[in-house]
Structure prediction request, 105 residues.
Amino acid sequence: MKGWEKEIKDGKTLYEVAFVEGAAKRQAVSGNGRNLVESEEVIAVTRAPAAAAVRDAVKKKYPKTVVHATETITRGTEIAYEVDLKNTPKREMVFTPEGKILKEE
Prediction:
């Protein structure tokens, strides 16, 4: 375990735990310390099952951007991909496996 942090999100108390397992960097978020709400895993964008769809969506929106990091986000049975970008007005995008943009920040 690398560390943990308590945060309030949408009025709910969550505990985020960061840990390293082999070469994988992961985070888990729990609502009450027992139930997993969300997990995140840092991956190479080429390793994502939806790599082509996500990569194409990023390049369509920001043709000259550089992908800095990618994470798989799992909430229950839903999977999304968070992409951190360089050289763009938006620094972070979240996609469905089909490449649909869910969020930009």
